[in-house]
Amino acid sequence: MKKLALFLTIIFMTMSYGQEIKQVPQINTNGEGKVKVAPDQVCISATVETKGNNAKDVKKQNDEKMDAVLKFIKKMNIPTADFKTKQVSLNPIYDYEKKKTSYNATQTVEIVVKDLSKYDELMEGLVQQGINRIDNVVFESSKLAQYQSEARKLAIKDAKSKAEDYVSVLGQKVGKAITITDNSQVYPPRPVYMAMKAESMDASGASNETLAIGEIEITATVSVSFILD
């Protein structure tokens, strides 16, 4: 009886193992989706930097300049929700040759400009009010999440189209997807530059091109495994 039970157990295990290793015909492909759009806003990171020998004076001068900068930003009718202080610092700098300590104060403000027609006037005014370092200027889309979704859908369609190309000569069909892997990298959208003409005219009456606003390219990549019917 024990031998019979052992024999049946071995048969059951063998059948189970056979079922587990049964291969399902499938095809694996990669897909890429790209969406190019014109940006409708710009994010500017600008810094006031002040140096001097007295920490109190350096901080005071830096504060006064930043106060003028913030007042100018408000004057440009930038909503308060669209600009904020990102960094404030006051650091001693020791000169070993002269054996003296100086001080360096910085304040950085980040501004999101949703009306690109204000860009030139804003940048010029920032410098006039005391900004002496533009750290970053990034053109963006306010509908980034929507375009990322579109890019992902295009990537899936691309993967399925490739799979259909491969199996079409085999007399088979692409069935359901069994795995989908998102391979998209978390990077800012890549700019694709092109010139944008400014409204202003130079002395000769010709229009100036002051801003290369271009397009931004939003990319999604996926890997998909399809069952073959």
How would you characterize the overall build of this protein?
The chain has 4 helices and 8 strands; from the N terminus they run αββαββαβαβββ. With 229 residues, the chain is an alpha+beta fold. It has 2 domains: 24-38 and 144-228, Protein of unknown function (DUF541), domain 1 (Translation Initiation Factor IF3, 2-Layer Sandwich); 41-140, Alpha-Beta Plaits, CATH 3.30.70. Strands 1, 6, 7 and 8 form a 4-stranded antiparallel sheet that branches. β3 (83-95) and β4 (100-113) form a beta hairpin. The model is unreliable at 4-8 and 190-208 (pLDDT under 50).
Brief overview, please?
This protein has two domains: 24-38 and 144-228, Protein of unknown function (DUF541), domain 1 (Translation Initiation Factor IF3, 2-Layer Sandwich); 41-140, Protein of unknown function (DUF541), domain 2 (Alpha-Beta Plaits, 2-Layer Sandwich). The chain is 33% helix and 37% strand. It contains four helices and eight strands, in the order αββαββαβαβββ.
Number of helices: 4
* Rg (CA only): 31 Å
Name the structural class. alpha+beta
**CATH fold call of the largest domain:** Translation Initiation Factor IF3
Beta-strand share of residues = 35-45%
CATH superfamily of the largest domain: Protein of unknown function (DUF541), domain 1
How much helical structure, as a percent, in the residues? 25-40%
Cα separation of the termini: 45 Å
Element string (H = helix, E = strand): HEEHEEHEHEEE
Number of domains: 2
Question: Would you count the extended β strands for me?
Answer: 8
The rough form would be described as: elongated
- The level-1 CATH class of the largest domain: Alpha Beta
Q: Which regions have little confidence, pLDDT < 50, spanning 5+ residues?
A: 4-8, 190-208
The overall average pLDDT, rounded, is: 84
CATH architecture of the largest domain: 2-Layer Sandwich
Question: What kind of oligomer do you see?
Answer: single chain
- Please summarize the sheet with the most strands: 4 strands, antiparallel
